[in-house]
Write the structure tokens for this entry.
Amino acid sequence: MRQRDQVRVRTIRMALTAITNEEVAGTTARDLSDDEIVKVLTKEAKKRREAAEAFDGAGRVDQAAAERAEGEVLAGYLPAQLSDDELAKIVDEAVTATGASDMKAMGQVMKIVTPQTAGRADGGRVAAEVRRRLSS
């Protein structure tokens, strides 16, 4: 706030509001664990990416840039994303562990891979890598 960085201030306030809303959602209020907070922030970052794409598609370049800036601020509070090589290694290990050989076993592989990649790789990216590995 002292640095007058309006994007950062706006984004942090939005993130705190999202966390508070998640804490009071449901029948009783509760404190979120660190993993749950990461999930909330990941969901908010995904919303920003999707909104930026939608604004780009509608020709609203200025609004898309604002959404991307908020996404970059959120990315600073999230765990580092897995590289393609690291993701491929995790998927290969899961395929080997399950003995999967075709697309019918994708659910089994995803069940092993998802907890290992939670917060560090987008679900669509993980599923695409599993599909690529099982179809080859």
Observations:
- The radius of gyration is 18 Å.
- The helical segments are 6-24, 34-57, 61-75, 84-98, 106-117, 123-135.
